[in-house]
Amino acid sequence: MKLTLLDQLREQNPIVFNISNFVTVQDVANGLNALGASPIMSEEVAEAGEMVGLAGAVCLNLGAFTVPQVKQITAVGQLANQAHKPLVIDPVAVGAVAYRKQVATELLRTVHPDVIRGNAGEIAALAGLDWQAKGIDAGEGAGDLVTIAQTCAQKQRCVVILSGPTDVITDGTRTVQVENGTPLFQTHVGSGDMLSSIVGAFCAVEDDAFEAAQTACLVFAAIGQSVASSQDRMGSGTFIVKLLDALQFTTVAEIQAIANYH
Ligand SMILES: Nc1ncnc2c1ncn2[C@@H]1O[C@H](COP(=O)(O)OP(=O)(O)OP(=O)(O)O)[C@@H](O)[C@H]1O
Ligand SMILES: Cc1ncsc1CCO
Ligand SMILES: [Mg+2]
């Protein structure tokens, strides 16, 4: 685990180009900014080339697209591949909505991500395995989460993050599990979107996507955990405000002190 990547990220302030969804765009922008990266968003295909050119990494969130936006998302993904910019895909609700799975599957035919980050329902869907997803949430299933993540990584030929109470990070062979976190993440819509964009920020400062992905998961989950433990009966409103503060101020040493992974 290369936790010092957090210091490098803060020094380098990499630009992360996000195709966000309209629900969580501000959380994504502010989460990246607080941590020490530089967010930029766009919905216009005419500027896709320039945007990719200035970005250190690109994150495609499939949370709420229209047909024209799918064209833009595909163009941005292809441009990122051509320019060898790290690419993260967040396949929101592909386990719950057949149309979304169809669009994501088509996208993955022409665009190759370095990292796919989703919850169990989303990753199981892209692995082709049985699971009962519930809307944007993970839902329920009987499968082993490590096997699901590894199957998805082998099928999609990229690093996969299956997030949840335990985050499973795998390249299909090597696997790391991050046990840090707090159930308060589930009370804030967009926690997963924030994580996906932060994975992009770490990919911008570390060429090995497996290293970048696991560090991003540990940093985000551990910071959330430290926020949750700072107050009794914390609610979702206070959590997101304090999470932004903590993304800005938490040090590598403070994360190291509570890091729980294997
Ligand atoms: N019950 C939990 N306990 C600890 N950490 C959790 C829990 N649930 C989620 N997390 C953490 O929340 C973050 C977001 O992951 P999650 O799997 O909830 O994403 P998501 O389902 O895509 O969320 P959203 O769709 O609301 O953006 C990760 O850092 C994960 O470790
Ligand atoms: C609630 C919701 N609906 C579409 S995207 C989104 C935010 C989680 O990604
Ligand atoms: Mg999500």
From TrEMBL:
GO aspect biological process, one term: thiamine diphosphate biosynthetic process
Gene3D superfamilies: 3.40.1190.20
Top-rank lineage group of the source organism: Bacteria
Cofactor: Mg(2+)
InterPro entries cross-referenced by the UniProt entry: Hyethyz_kinase, Ribokinase-like
Keyword terms: ATP-binding, Kinase, Magnesium, Metal-binding, Nucleotide-binding, Thiamine biosynthesis, Transferase
Binding locations of ATP: 117, 163
Molecular-function annotations in GO: ATP binding; hydroxyethylthiazole kinase activity; magnesium ion binding
EC number(s) given by UniProt: 2.7.1.50
Known pathway: Cofactor biosynthesis; thiamine diphosphate biosynthesis; 4-methyl-5-(2-phosphoethyl)-thiazole from 5-(2-hydroxyethyl)-4-methylthiazole: step 1/1
Reaction equations catalysed: 5-(2-hydroxyethyl)-4-methylthiazole + ATP = 4-methyl-5-(2-phosphooxyethyl)-thiazole + ADP + H(+)
Stated role: Catalyzes the phosphorylation of the hydroxyl group of 4-methyl-5-beta-hydroxyethylthiazole (THZ).
Similarity comment: Belongs to the Thz kinase family.
Protein's name according to its UniProt entry: Hydroxyethylthiazole kinase
Organism: Levilactobacillus namurensis DSM 19117
